[in-house]
Amino acid sequence: MNKKLTDVYEEFHRYIYHLCLKLTRNTTEAEDLMQEVWVKVVRNEKQVTQVEHVKAWLTTITMNTFRDRYRKKVRRSKYMLSQPETLDVPILDLVPNNEISTEEQVEKVAVTKIVQEKMQQLDGIYQRTLWYFYVDQYSLAEISNLMKVSIGTVKSRLFRAKARLKEILLADSSLSEVVLA
């Protein structure tokens, strides 16, 4: 380790340890987290000399490392019951739940089917524009090249197609409860 890194460690190691302890509420986990943080700092030792606010930089590294570790734990545990009790509730808000429930999946399939059926009522040019953009996920420039029109025209067609599709969906009385105005 170079002199600058040693000085940073001497100055901030107690602060980082107490931050880790506050986050984990467990001495063993705090020590593990602190070790991970310092490994990251050593790996990025060239940045230490460029950082103006070292304490803020170290705090950010610590918080991000803690979040990463916590996300790993959550991914590993499938059930909320097996998650650690020592964590604050606000931390749970930081971890997105990427799993789609069965109900959501069924609803998604049903909505997709309805939208595809209603898209059949659109003019062909609008159908293709929507399809290229949302299904094939082409960029505006790619759609412009495919359809041999300007990007502005593609944007206009997308706008009109979405507006018309919304009108068609709202006009269907069986869907009026589901479609947002």
TrEMBL record:
Molecular function terms from GO: DNA binding; sigma factor activity
Cited InterPro entries: RNA_pol_sigma-70-like, RNA_pol_sigma-70_dom, RNA_pol_sigma70_r2, RNA_pol_sigma70_r4_t2, RNA_pol_sigma_r2, RNA_pol_sigma_r3/r4-like, WH-like_DNA-bd_sf
NCBIfam families in UniProt: sigma70-ECF
Source organism of this protein record: Lysinibacillus composti
Claim: S-adenosyl-L-methionine is one of the keywords in the record: no
Residue stretches making up the RNA polymerase sigma factor 70 region 4 type domain: 114-165
Gene3D superfamilies, sorted: 1.10.1740.10, Winged helix-like DNA-binding domain superfamily/Winged helix DNA-binding domain
One Gene Ontology term from the biological process aspect of the record: DNA-templated transcription initiation
Top-rank lineage group of the source organism: Bacteria
Protein name, UniProt field: RNA polymerase sigma factor
Keywords attached to this entry: Sigma factor, Transcription, Transcription regulation
Record domain RNA polymerase sigma-70 region: where: 9-75
Keyword hit for Transcription regulation: yes
Record family assignment: Belongs to the sigma-70 factor family. ECF subfamily.
Pfam families cross-referenced by the UniProt entry: Sigma70_r2, Sigma70_r4_2
